[in-house]
Amino acid sequence: MRAVTGSNIPPSPPSAFVARLRRIALVTAGLGVTAVAGCAAPPPKDPEALAEYREANDPYESLNRKMYDISMTLDKYSLRPVAKAYVWAVPYRVRQSLGNMVQTMNEPVVFFNDVGAGKSRRAGDAFVRWCVNMVAGVGGLIDVAKYAGYPHHDNDAGLTMATWGVPSGPYLFLPMMGPSSFRDGAGYGIDVGLSPWNYVPSGYGLLTFNWAYNIMGVINGRADHLDALDQLQKDALDPYATIRSAYQQQRKAQAEAIGNDHRATVPDWYN
Amino acid sequence: MKTVLARRHVLGLVAGALALPAVRPARAADAAAAGARSFVTDFGRQLIAIVNSDRTLADKKAAILPLLQAHVDMDEIGRYCLGRYWRAATPEQQARYLALFHQVLVNSITDKIGDYRGVTFTVSGTSPAGGDQAVDTIINRPEQPSANTQWIVSTTSGQPKVVDVVGEGTSLRLTQRQDYASFVARHNGSIDALLHAMDHQVAAHGAQ
């Protein structure tokens, strides 16, 4: 009897073919790396300018600026108006509840990353938040855990790698995804893999829910930053550099906050 | 017996003398922390009294300006933000830059707190930050998530003054410095280009 799933998978190709595919992939990847490296501007000679260049950590600046311009133009005509309409149409309390749900649904990713960072107390907090909010918080719509003494904390694979001592690598501005770095970009891929929602089976409306959840999450997230981003683009002389600086500082502070959390896992009475 | 007592006294004195230098900096640090804390509490209370009042936005801005000038070291922040270009600038450029910087900073702060009512804030803790004191506050605005904000208070000018504000890990003056540095670098190191852009920014803000 044949298995129902994967019935159309062709027989595995001969090894020579695989080897050729691998070679093509390697050459393409190599070309890609050379192309990116070709965009890197040479570091300046002046010592003070060099210090500034190192502080910005942005050797691919010209490419990143292009990505930034494209993203901001697209945002101006697509996501920003949608987010503005969403804020106009949906009352604050409802938006807050949807924001809570998005946050709770991401709690498994935070949990796995807390475990990865070796922070058991934080992992416990994320676990309790998930259980409490999914049950008492009606599927995450109400952040009950916050009132029970378990406020939300951030974690993602980029931060977990930061606590392992993995350097951020050069700054990257990813189209439509915003500020990132080599490490954080790779971390994003890991987080997608860690999210249980990406493993939901088809049927029962789960896939529909997953799509709705992701799209809603994006709109809700953009709506949260409407005023801040508008103000930044108005106030900053070079918004690109301001976003880069703010992002890098914030990531550093987040990684330090995780590293400095030395709360014990054992209860107080045990000590 | 007498010798034992005397020896005990001497030992006590020696121990006391050893402990004193350790105690004194701790006391000084406590005093600095308490001073910074009361300074931020007082400043925040006055600022929020203006923000929560029934005045018009223009009135609020007019009332906030002297308060900021008294509590924020705007010249020091301005010099920091210009970074290495401060030394490259002529005295005239420096003076013009500082005058513009004051206006930009005040506009930026009043824009942020602008039309809010019902703002509350609590001081949660104090920690040393280099030679300065970092005072942690939580600002609650209606219909907005609460913001954790850190105020860096320096006493190098003789009296306590705010030299930086850190929100969610992002330092206001460092971000501003990298904004200016990048702008000047992209305009071939021309400080006049920066002054021109700031001029434009202030004029555009006034036109609103």
TrEMBL record, chain A:
GO cellular component term of the entry, any: membrane
Superkingdom, taxonomy of origin: Bacteria
Matches recorded under InterPro entries: MlaA
Any Pfam family the entry gives: MlaA
GO biological process per UniProt: intermembrane phospholipid transfer
Keywords on record: Lipoprotein, Signal
Signal peptide stretch: none
Similarity comment: family membership: Belongs to the MlaA family.
The protein's name: VacJ family lipoprotein
Originating organism: Gluconacetobacter johannae
UniProtKB/TrEMBL annotation, chain B:
Pfam families for this protein: MlaC (PF05494)
Keywords for this protein: Signal
InterPro entries: MlaC/ttg2D, TAT_signal, Tgt2/MlaC_sf
Signal peptide (UniProt feature, chain positions): 1-28
Keyword Coiled coil included in the entry's annotation: no
Signal found in the keyword field: yes
Protein's name in the database: ABC transporter substrate-binding protein
Native source species: Gluconacetobacter johannae
